[in-house]
Amino acid sequence: MKKIMMNTPVVEMDGDEMTRIIWQILKDELILPFVDLKSEYYDLGLKERDKTDDRVTTDAANAIKKYGVGVKCATITPNAQRVEEYDLKKMYKSPNGTIRAILDGTVFRAPIVVKGITPTVSTWQKPITIARHAYGDVYKDTEAKVPGDAKAELVITRKDGSEERQTVFEYNENGGIALSMYNTTDSIKSFCRSCMNYAIDTKQDLWFSTKDTISKKYDHTFKDIFQEIYDQEYAEKFEKLGIEYFYTLIDDAVARVIRSKGGYIWALKNYDGDVMSDMVATAFGSLAMMTSVLVSPDGNYEYEAAHGTVTRHYYKHLEGEETSTNSMATIFAWSGALRKRGELDNNQELVEFADQLEAASIGTIESGVMTKDLALISTLPDKTTVNTADFMKEIRKNLEKMRG
Predict the structure, then answer these.
(1) Beta 10-14 vs 39-43: how paired, if at all?
(2) pLDDT of amino acid 244
(3) Which of 166, 310, 339, 402 falls between 20 and 30 A from 358, CA-CA?
(4) pLDDT at 257
(5) Closest Cα to residue 104, out of 185, 42, 165, 194?
(6) β-pair partners for 265
(7) How far is CA 93 from the centre of its chain?
(8) What is the rounded distance in angstroms from the CA atom of residue 63 to the CA atom of residue 60?
(9) SS3 string of 87-125?
(10) What pLDDT is stored for residue 17 in this prediction?
(11) Tell me: the pLDDT tens digits for 157-205?
(12) How far apart are CA 375 and CA 386, in angstroms?
């Protein structure tokens, strides 16, 4: 079989634990037999990040800026226990956070929908894509325990030294707690443009929701920036494609989402996006069936699985035990990256291969062959549970049939 040629490389970022094992099997079974793969490889495994003082993560992010498309394996963000386990020099930051900051990107997460796995919400028929503004807000807050009979103030100090002071609260003798959080105009604008561009790219409606009736400056600023940028830069493009930008309060949005059929992008602030992405993933069936793509406002794309490194299965694998680990989200990370590479390079063969890879993967599950996690929730009458490698081998058989 003649391999599909690539004109420009994708940035390939290897990862940790069980997903690193899956990464290699996936390439051997589902990519390399069909594609003359061009990739610029970066090892983002924890040992290599430690060896390079995490420079490898920065280098990978800059390579995505150079080539426009990256695909990333799941990685460990070390806590104290991991620092000891891997004998690390320090507790390194999340690679995803580092890459996101360098690309100034927004994360879009969408479920992979297959027959036999019925969403908990009976009305949902199409995927709901969550766009999370992963910057600032409560994740970068400043907090304090407040002693009794104290006053908390919000102080804005201008460049000329002048101050604007507002009383937050005057506490009684029992004291309490306080926090402040922030965001920036530049970050909100980047978030908005990434969402608008992704809606155009995927030809889906875009919903955005905050609580501007309560937060009349903070949340209202998000609402105003979205509306202003839509009116000035995107309204005509949306109308030509027949898609809609829609704003509503977050409590109304939640009610609408539950009653909807799906098939749109739901843009949310940081905390809201964190919560709702897990809700949507679980209601559709499994976090292992959740895709994730980071999109920068200037058109760079980084694809990965939404889940972690599957530590429990990795330890089983090290002990020689068989695992049945779901590789669907990682497969779709590769298919997404190859499709985008094909689109940017006008390489229709590569685009078609990405479509076929996804169809073969979904077809395998819908034929009744699946990993253990899916077998537990599938409503199909006849199911065969297979191990990690055999699942991908079965997909390969289906892919070979499709490609003749």
Answers:
(1) parallel
(2) 98
(3) 310
(4) 97
(5) 194
(6) 129, 206
(7) 17
(8) 5
(9) CCCCCCCCHHHHHHHHHCCEEEEEECCCCCCCCCCCCCC
(10) 95
(11) 999 999 999 999 999 999 999 999 999 999 999 999 999 999 999 999 9
(12) 10
Contact assessment for residue 403 and residue 390, using Cβ atoms and an 8 Å cutoff: no
- pLDDT, position 288: 84
Give the separation between CA 335 and CA 341, rounded to whole angstroms.
10
Q: Model-level pTM?
A: 0.89
Quick one: residue 337, left, alpha or beta (phi over 0 = left, psi -120 to 50 = alpha)? alpha
Q: Give the largest Cα separation in the chain, rounded.
A: 79
Interatomic CA distance for residues 92 and 83, integer angstroms: 9
Burial of 23 (0-12, 13-18, 19+ CB in 10 A): buried
Cβ-based neighbours of 140, under 8 Å, separated by 6 or more: 181, 182
Low-confidence ranges of the chain (pLDDT < 50): none
The Cα 180–Cα 172 span in angstroms is 20
Question: Which of 51, 58, 63 lies closest to 90, judged by CA?
Answer: 51
Q: What is the CA radius of gyration of the chain?
A: 23
Query: What is the predicted pLDDT for the residue at 103?
Result: 92
Chain-centre distance of CA 393, in angstroms? 26
- For residue 110, the model assigns a pLDDT of 93
| Angstrom distance (rounded) from CA 161 to CA 47 | 47
pLDDT of residue 140: 86
Cα–Cα distance, 310 to 385 (Å, whole number): 18
pLDDT by residue (tens digit) across 239-259? 999 999 999 999 999 999 999
